[in-house]
Amino acid sequence: MKLSALFEQGRFVVTSEVGPPKGSDVSGMLREAAPLSGVVDAVNVTDNQSAVMRLGSLAAAHLLKENGFEPVYQLTCRDRNRLALQSDLLSAAALGLENVLCLTGDHVTSGDHREAKPVYDLDSVQLLQIARTMGEGRDAAGNRLAGKADFCLGAVAHPGAEPQGPQMVKLEKKVRAGARFIQTQAVFEPEMFARFASRASSLGVPILAGVLLVKSKAMARYLNEKVPGVHVPEGFVAQLADGPADRRKETAVRLAVRLIRELRPLCAGVHIMPLGWTDLVPEIVAGIG
Amino acid sequence: MIGTIGKPIDEVMSCLKDRDDLFVVGCGGCAKAIHSGGEVEVAGMVEELTRRGKRVIASGVPERTCYIQHTRAFLEPLKDKVARCGALVVMGCGGAVQIVRQATEEWGLVKPVVSALNSVGHFDTVVPGHEFVEQCLECGDCLLNRTGAICPVTRCAKGLLNGPCGGSQQGRCEVNPERECAWILIYNRLEALGELDKMAAYQPPKDFSKMTRPRRAVYDENAGVTLG
Question: Which of A180, A221, B32, B149 has its CA 20 to 30 A from that of B95?
Fold first, then answer.
């Protein structure tokens, strides 16, 4: 089902995500996804996340679909030129995938193949534009397609990026190009998100606020140092627990529930990034009511 | 200018194994300007090669080694040494190395031509003699009129054409925080020029057919310059 249909119903949409494995054994990924079954509306599948080479998001999204999940297939511009991107979109359509999140993609220098050639033949705005055209039955060169590639297209936004002016210009272009929903980077401060949501409201598309389950103070520091586009503010870090996993999990659930309750009036849904802790998502979803 | 920087001397030496009576050729253009292949650096290379047990029978710096006419003019009086040398060591860009090869081949000589530098980009001199930066990728389809004379193809690490990525923070690049985000610079400049509408306009995918290599230009009095 397309996410756009859920938004149209006026539902508070909850999505989450899993990362494909480093290797061909998908049993761990399916185990990781299992707690999300019947709990969230859709499950994003990351595309060589943080430029670390993994099993492809297309295959992983297909496997999730076969296992009863509604996948959001993430597609970045980093690793493929326009032929490969369009070809993968056709493959996704043929496999019955319905939701695609189009991203630029972290640069190869942040990953595990730093000597790779970064592609970026297209940027995320152009990918959205071309994907929309493919939904209308034409490829980027204007050729007619035998069978459309009709998706609910999503784009990402970064509410915490400063300055916001240039980010907002680009976000407007993403929506004009074809984005039907926006998923944000991790949000930690409702006030900051409120400012973003207020500016983005004129775009007229639903926004999923990103909620990241930070597992520890050490992880917060790692995210701040190593992961582009993620910044955990000091005030939030101070509330995180250290020590045994049970205690850290309990804290992560409590903080996520509180944050989502505060964000709820400001957005159309949330995208929970559990970073492996998918077992916490049912409790969080139950907690937000 | 073409930016160049010296290769590790061990790499150069590995290409000169079993070669002696060397001829060192610098470049009086770009490589001299960036202190990698002018008279000073050529003298340094001659000294280093000698210290490592090689005989150097000739050395010098053509006015601009990537122009065949300058390289011919430089080598002509030294033709016997070119003929006698075991290899030519070129301290110029990749183009200079290939022009030196062309000059030797024009004389019917088959001489090893060894590159002593790595070419690292089309550089502009922003602090004379000191700082050189890459600002143009020679994409063949200049966008500067739409981006406030700041090139996103070159200065954005991802070459994005429609605005900054999510990794841009406080005007800095996700790839290297010491670098400025090109798209924040472009936004600020277009805003100052009252031309933000240019950034708001959709920029279609780039026509990379204009970068199909190798490109070639031919000048003719009647036709002017044509690319092919």
Answer: B149
